[in-house]
């Protein structure tokens, strides 16, 4: 995990500093004022007590306090000048880094990463400035305080000096290992953040491509790596606390404990107070800043500098690694642990096992009792289903409430729903009503804020529930392999060819499979239309062993006839339960049950019943009424999106390949020109 330092990084840093001797001298000169201030912070009050207040000469005491105050003012002036000198050191440092980064970006043509790198340059500059200030401040403070202690009474130095030296030595000894752990932790944290930044927005796609197990394994390993790094850092962090305790806090205890002895050996009360002031007001804060600054910021600076000063060779290696892990065409699924073999055999096709021997999500039977291949098209049995015992619902939601933010209004509220195995449910509602949110809750991609979701009796989220459902979103994924590999992707075992052909026949893929050249033909995802990709994805899902199929507008690019065939095929899977987010009235009519979602309120029943009892459903059905058709030249997606963008309802749209999306009536329909000019009219539903 730890990056190797490019040779010469410390040497380059030293050269950089030596080339700026004048600035360093200026810095030292102004720092002397701060040293004087520190000296007076203990010495002034000591003299004020001993020579003034305790000797009955209040004027002298006040004079010493005034001198201390003037010292503080001079010190503050010095600190202000120090900032200017530090800027003279830090700005050229930043300029040098920017030059290197830009030159490398121009040389490698990696201009895209420049903005990110310049941001890191700013981090490096700030951290470097902080480190210069912290270490300089410690040296200045230590010199001022130790000189003050010696001047007040040499025995004070004997009490404070040894623990301070011991704490410093302990800190110095832990510096390198601590910096390494800190660096490992930072890298692990960055790797996890990068991974989650990619994975989280794509959870739906991960589920749709059946890559959950692979992603969980990869991300889980990164979480583990960060945990290990954090633990190691914490162990070494304890030593850091010990060094601060020994170097900064132990002297206070020793001064107090040794006070009687010190007072009896010529140390005055004022000197004792001065010594305590040195330790508590100067040394302890300076040591704390140093330990924190060098331990944390120092490691961060090292990481950032290594990254920024990477040679072109390092960059090329990193780019090659990144490229190797990227997908080839954006349509290739993440490999399941190992490279995906072309495992089409004479009669069977099966996706590869992950290298670690785990089974992809949606594939395994926890008890391993039945081979799904032997079971043919029989889908796995739900939880707790024993002979004579009533099977649990295929899907059950109990008082499910979900909001996207803690302060946001719930999208789903107190929703109760029980679907028996074999049921066919259509979910309808205006755009934004929460239909996709509901499917995401059932698929375990979202967690309800209240209530419970169960799939086949298994709690969601959970491995059994994940294995019991398959989600097919609107975006259909087709991978750059053979058609057979695409179809078998969600199946754990070699899939008999006849089974794939039967699935293709049931869903309506057969003509396309024929055109492509059969199951063994390689598929070019980009050459397929959106509807053709949906057919492949639907057949793949149909072949999976998940009893519950969630079709979230998964047929939106299909013509009504093909859509009907596909939906009927899913509804007819033995023991299979179907939930369809409907985008055509025909879908809702076909389903035995309809769930009407409208924000927080819902209605549930059969089509006829809802037509009588639910005004919103009647509205939706009205908006789905016969409508003008599209010309074949009109891309279906473009039409659909045009209507979505305009948030149009009113007379719904349909046609050959067209789509109707249920929208709340908000305005006039702005039909695309083809439609307004008239075209072959179609009817559906
Ligand atoms: N990731 C998110 N963060 C915040 N709000 C979201 C998020 N996703 C959806 N929403 C909001 O939640 C509500 C329900 O969205 P959802 O996509 O579930 O509706 P829908 O009925 O599926 O709509 P459509 O038919 O347009 O797909 C909408 O108001 C939407 O803006």
Task: Find the structural class using helix and strand composition.
Answer: alpha/beta
Poorly predicted spans: 1-7, 312-382, 627-685
Q: What is the end-to-end distance?
A: 59 Å
Q: Main sheet: which strands, in order across?
A: 7-9-10-4-11-12
Helix content: 55-70%
Number of DSSP strands? Answer: 12
What is the assigned CATH homologous superfamily of the largest domain? ABC transporter type 1, transmembrane domain
> Ligands bound here?
adenosine-5'-triphosphate
Oligomer: single chain
Counting DSSP H or I runs of 4 or more residues, the number of helices is 22
* Radius of gyration using CA atoms only: 36 Å
Organism: Streptomyces paradoxus
Transmembrane segments: 23-43, 63-90, 128-150
Protein name: ATP-binding cassette subfamily C protein
GO molecular function: ABC-type transporter activity; ATP binding; ATP hydrolysis activity; ATPase-coupled lipid transmembrane transporter activity
């Amino acid at each position: 995990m730890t990056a190797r330092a490019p040779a010469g990084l410390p040497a380059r840093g030293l050269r950089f500093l030596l080339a700026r001797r004048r600035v360093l001298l200026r810095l030292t000169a102004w720092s002397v004022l701060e040293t004087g201030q520190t000296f007076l912070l203990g010495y002034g009050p000591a003299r004020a007590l001993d020579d003034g207040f305790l000797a009955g000469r209040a004027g002298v005491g006040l004079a010493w306090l005034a001198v201390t105050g003037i010292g503080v003012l001079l010190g503050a002036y010095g600190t202000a000048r120090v900032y200017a000198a530090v800027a003279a050191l830090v700005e050229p440092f930043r300029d040098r880094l920017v030059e290197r980064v830009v030159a490398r970006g121009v040389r490698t043509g990696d201009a895209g990463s420049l903005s990110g790198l310049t941001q890191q340059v700013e981090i490096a500059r700030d951290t470097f400035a902080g480190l210069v200030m912290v270490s300089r401040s410690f040296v200045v403070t230590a010199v001022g305080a130790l000189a003050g202690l010696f001047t007040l009474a040499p025995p004070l130095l004997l009490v404070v000096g040894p623990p301070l030296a011991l704490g410093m030595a302990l800190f110095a000894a832990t510096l390198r290992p601590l910096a390494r752990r800190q660096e490992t932790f930072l890298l692990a944290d960055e790797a996890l953040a990068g991974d989650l930044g990619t994975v989280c927005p794509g959870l739906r796609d991960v589920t749709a491509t059946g890559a959950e197990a692979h992603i969980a394994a990869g991300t889980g390993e990164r979480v583990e790596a960060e945990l290990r790094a954090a633990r190691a850092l914490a162990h070494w962090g304890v030593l850091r606390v010990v060094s601060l305790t020994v170097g900064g806090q132990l002297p206070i205890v020793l001064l107090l404990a040794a006070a009687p002895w010190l007072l009896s050996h010529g140390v005055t009360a004022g000197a004792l107070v001065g010594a305590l002031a040195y330790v508590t007001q100067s040394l302890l804060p300076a040591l704390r800043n140093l330990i924190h600054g060098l331990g944390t910021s120092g490691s961060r600076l090292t990481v950032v500098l290594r990254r920024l000063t990477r040679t072109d060779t390092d960059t090329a290696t990193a780019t090659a690694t990144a490229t190797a892990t990227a997908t080839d065409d954006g349509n290739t699924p993440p490999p399941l642990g190992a490279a995906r073999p072309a495992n089409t055999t004479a009669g069977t096709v099966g996706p590869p096992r992950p290298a670690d021997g785990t089974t992809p999500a949606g594939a395994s039977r926890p008890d391993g009792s039945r081979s799904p291949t032997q079971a043919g098209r029989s889908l796995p049995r739900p939880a707790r289903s024993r002979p004579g015992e009533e099977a649990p619902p295929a899907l059950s939601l109990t008082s499910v409430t979900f909001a996207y933010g803690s302060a946001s209004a719930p999208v789903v509220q107190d929703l109760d729903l029980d679907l028996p195995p074999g049921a066919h449910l259509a979910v309808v509602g205006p755009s934004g009503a929460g239909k996709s949110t509901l499917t995401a809750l059932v698929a375990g991609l979202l967690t309800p804020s209240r209530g419970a979701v169960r799939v086949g009796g298994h709690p969601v989220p959970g491995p059994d529930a994940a294995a019991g459902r398959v989600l097919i979103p609107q975006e259909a994924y087709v991978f750059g392999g053979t058609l057979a590999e695409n179809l078998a992707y969600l199946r754990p075992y070699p899939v008999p060819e006849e089974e794939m052909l039967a699935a293709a026949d049931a869903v309506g893929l057969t003509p396309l499979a024929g055109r492509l050249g059969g199951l063994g033909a390689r598929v070019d995802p980009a050459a397929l239309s959106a509807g053709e990709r949906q057919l492949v994805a639907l057949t793949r899902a149909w072949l999976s062993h998940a009893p519950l199929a969630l079709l979230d507008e998964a047929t939106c690019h299909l013509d009504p006839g093909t859509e009907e065939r596909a939906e009927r095929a899913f509804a007819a899977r033995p023991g299979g339960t179907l939930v369809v987010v409907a985008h055509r009235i025909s879908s809702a009519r076909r389903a035995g049950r309809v769930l009407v979602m409208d924000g927080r309120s819902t209605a549930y029943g059969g089509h006829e019943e809802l037509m009588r009892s639910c005004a919103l459903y009647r509205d939706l059905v009205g908006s789905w009424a016969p409508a003008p058709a599209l010309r074949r030249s009109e891309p279906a997606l473009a039409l659909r999106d045009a209507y979505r963008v305009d948030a149009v309802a009113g007379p719904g749209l349909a046609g050959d390949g067209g789509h109707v999306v249920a929208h709340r009536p908000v305005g006039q329909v702005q039909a695309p020109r083809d439609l307004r000019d008239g075209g072959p009219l179609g009817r559906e539903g």
